[in-house]
Amino acid sequence: MADPRLLVATLARLLEGCRTVAVGALSPIPGAAALLARELAGGALHVTVLGSRKTNDFTDGGRELFDRAGQGRIDAFFLGGGEIDGQGNVNLVGTGGDYPAHDVRFPGTFGAAFMGFAVPRVILFREDHSRRVLVPRVAFISVPGTSPPGVWRRGGTVALVTGRCVFAFDRAKARFALASVHPGETRASVRANTGFDYDEPNELPETPPPTDAMKTLLDGPVARVIAETYPRFAAAVLGTGASNRRVN
Amino acid sequence: MADPRLLVATLARLLEGCRTVAVGALSPIPGAAALLARELAGGALHVTVLGSRKTNDFTDGGRELFDRAGQGRIDAFFLGGGEIDGQGNVNLVGTGGDYPAHDVRFPGTFGAAFMGFAVPRVILFREDHSRRVLVPRVAFISVPGTSPPGVWRRGGTVALVTGRCVFAFDRAKARFALASVHPGETRASVRANTGFDYDEPNELPETPPPTDAMKTLLDGPVARVIAETYPRFAAAVLGTGASNRRVN
Amino acid sequence: MAAIDESVEDLVARIPDGALIAIPPDYAGVSMAATRALVRRGTRGLGLLAVPTSGLQADLLIGAGLITRLEAAAITLGEYGQAPCFTRALRQGRFAMRDSTCPAIHAGLQAAEKGVPFMPLRGLIGTDVLAHRPDWATIGSPFDPADPIVVVPALRPDVALFHAALADRSGNVWIGRRRELATMAHAAATSLVTVESLDAGDLLDDPVMAAGTLPALYVGAVAVAPKGAWPLGFEDAYGMDHDHLADYVRLSATEEGFARYLDAHVLGARAA
Amino acid sequence: MAAIDESVEDLVARIPDGALIAIPPDYAGVSMAATRALVRRGTRGLGLLAVPTSGLQADLLIGAGLITRLEAAAITLGEYGQAPCFTRALRQGRFAMRDSTCPAIHAGLQAAEKGVPFMPLRGLIGTDVLAHRPDWATIGSPFDPADPIVVVPALRPDVALFHAALADRSGNVWIGRRRELATMAHAAATSLVTVESLDAGDLLDDPVMAAGTLPALYVGAVAVAPKGAWPLGFEDAYGMDHDHLADYVRLSATEEGFARYLDAHVLGARAA
């Protein structure tokens, strides 16, 4: 498993320049990343964390997140994926067998079939980097990696962050390119665990660890705020003391 | 001028059997009629009076009245009309010259172009019964009297109440028929002051005055409730004491 | 006129076999008290519309065999993982599944709320969500036919079923900022609501409370059910019963275990 | 980030020439303070979108020559009769008029709120409202082409301008049950708000206040303007200034009289 603090820092770097970011439910690492990016931006990043009471300013019901995205008021959004393929397609529904009676059922598409179109900067995040997850072709397209010309889309996937590496996504080519590997990983280890083909650069950097400034923020304000929503995560990963409960 | 209490009683009778009625702004007589009908129904008529705080349960903003009508939750609605013609068309916009530079401009269509379709029982009410108002053909159709087959319409105009008489509206014929004349009016006086043609029955009743029970309700609970929204009307017309200010 | 302060059993008796029921997500006011009463009553052939997702509530109703069709953007027990009865029944084809996406469910309810037959929605083009929805369509946008856009039909539930903090004796219900409950209620033919408690006053009299109040016009009946969302959490009043959820997941891994769960926590106790 | 507690003059300086401004009806939170400041500033070529009607506010802005286009379901001074400057300028063709109907304006704003290019709406077929709206269309309903239905395009104001009771120092604004203000704000690029007073706390911290709060994300700037709706009334705080309205109507019957009104009540007093 990659160092979760490295993942938080990596996702936070991908939010640079955004004015607003929304984080879905059950997403402690993206949530912490958004809060870290807010600190790094001196507060000039508007963060909503679903499931939070305090980092959540919605007052128009469940539709407001999607309405805001439709208005162009959400610059960045994180998406997971039961399966992700080399064309950037994301499957949140199921795999094996025929829909709807898949052998393995995932929770469902949530808002992704809309958010993937309405949000300019979509960041895929899936810690489990294996051939089970990163497949040649998803069994069900919850969000397509790219859309034909003429289909309304404000942006879409810009990157895929896993427990092993960072991929950049090239929408024109509909193809990922390895951007950096996390400490301990290599070109070969990534290739061995990835079920789809992708490009590799000549120079392959290592994903940079959190800076000292980031670490201070993670253990201070980020930990304090994220603890409201993810107390066990904050305790286990950030600087709010020990916990023997599992990280959710 | 007709006795306003007679008009209130007449409009209230037209609400018999309704479950819900909405009354627009600046409509003291329809407002009092709705409240009287509620009393006559033992409370089993839901009344909203725009402009009221207490007889107004909207909490979803200005659209809720129209949304409710769209849902089929409003059984009856009152409409005025700068001009009304013999086909039941209503003009709330203007007359003389060409739109939009009419010689005489009325306030505008408000929600009528929707409510006239969504509400099953629309009651036209215009006290001023003259050839200026009741015209052969309106200069601008804010609400059509009838719609061709295939056009979604839950109902529409059922009656026109003026200061002189009650007309029933026959949607199949797109034509009014005189239903009763108010005390002091005759077939001839109505005909003389009406700019459109209409049917007349062989037996022409007089519009019945409020019953004693109605009068008691008007001077009691109806006056008390309507006074919140129309204090001068309540004072001048119903039983809440005298006032020398004009009735709005 | 809303019926106030009736029993939870009477409340769910208003739901006929075959009704389409709209429910909120597990974190936003689920009436688990009414859900258990519904299972006890054994109402059959129900459709379930998750607004826009569900978890324990859908899983329990599916496991108990009440549901023949389900529309949802997701079904999950969150940190407790996949919904076991949902997953099992789906694989066995025991109900008709309509996968959706959150804003499509909101849009369909808003179409019903406004009395229009459909609502347009961005996104979706090129997804298998759309491919598996023969009831949706892609049209050229009326003001720019070269711009394709998806339209979804109005969603008109027979019943919106949910739990709220407070109702008054007229049937007005305080929902606070859970405005998806208002949309559900506007779109549904009627709403059946359990509440933590009854308010002696009139919620619409106070402009501050009125801002978060669903008017009684939409409400068919209200039953008082303290801790009515248990074992789910409810706003600031109480948190999720984590031990109970863990038990639920463990037992529901098999049909036999789920039957034991029902016996212990649903069928046994009339008041549970 | 919303700018908090700036002057009303600075607030209206944010409105560029040519902007489309959405405003509420006269009874629902009109910022007359900002309206007067706008007239003093002399911003030109403004579009006005009444949501869905207006009265004194539109009349004043039209009389002062700021408005080149107006969309409204009605313009009226209510019990004070026709809006004199509106009526005069319309007859003289001094601005482009788009007559609408209340739910079409709500629907157009909801389209913008949802980021869709249009919204369907029942009614309207066979009316001259529709006949005079080349920007609207009648289509066959996608799920029943034999069923004709009107579609209206999204309404995207540059600015929503209104008056509210309270804002906090983050720029959250309490609007209570005036939810059309939220829809306006969601649909508009930004909102400029005058308030009766500032709240020292955080409106979103209290679940009861939060239910009636517009989040700061939508708010560009807030200015404190006690009695900022005067001479109109504002909620329970103060009623309409009937003597002033009667004066307004009397003076505005002629252009010369209206100019005297402006001198006395708008242009003279910077703080008025």
Mind explaining what this structure looks like?
The complex is a heterotetramer, with 2 copies of chain A (248 residues) and 2 copies of chain C (272 residues). Chain A is of the alpha/beta class and 248 residues long. Chain A is built from 7 helices and 12 strands. Chain A has a 7-stranded mixed beta sheet with strand order 2-1-3-8-10-11-12. A 3-stranded mixed beta sheet of chain A has the order 5-4-9, with no helix packed on it. Chain A has a two-stranded antiparallel ribbon with strand order 6-7. In chain A, helix 2 links the parallel strand 1 and strand 2. In chain A, helix 2 crosses helix 6. The longest helix of chain A has 18 residues. By secondary structure, chain C is an alpha/beta fold. Chain C is 31% helix and 27% strand. Chain C has 10 helices and 15 strands. In chain C, the strands form 3 sheets. In chain C, strands 1, 2, 3, 5, 7, 11, 12, 13, 14 and 15 form a 10-stranded mixed beta sheet that branches. In chain C, helix 3 packs across helix 4 and helix 5 crosses helix 7. Chains A and C meet through helix 3 and helix 4 of A and strand 6, helix 4, helix 5, helix 6 and strand 10 of C.
Topology:
The complex is a heterotetramer, with two copies of chain A (248 residues) and two copies of chain C (272 residues).
Chain A: H1 4-13, E1 20-23, H2 28-40, E2 46-49, H3 64-71, E3 76-79, E4 83-85, E5 90-91, E6 94-95, E7 104-105, H4 112-118, E8 121-126, E9 134-135, E10 156-162, E11 165-170, E12 175-181, H5 187-193, H6 212-229, H7 231-237
Parallel strand pairs in A: 1-2, 1-3, 3-8, 4-9, 8-10
Antiparallel strand pairs in A: 4-5, 6-7, 10-11, 11-12
Chain C: E1 3-4, H1 8-13, E2 20-23, H2 32-41, E3 46-50, E4 53-54, H3 56-63, E5 67-72, E6 74-75, H4 84-91, E7 96-99, H5 102-114, E8 118-121, H6 128-131, E9 137-141, E10 144-153, E11 159-168, E12 173-174, H7 179-187, E13 190-199, H8 207-210, E14 213-214, E15 219-224, H9 242-251, H10 255-267
Parallel strand pairs in C: 1-15, 2-3, 2-11, 3-5, 4-6, 5-7, 11-13, 13-15
Antiparallel strand pairs in C: 8-10, 9-10, 11-12, 12-14
Helix pairs in contact in C: 3-4, 5-7
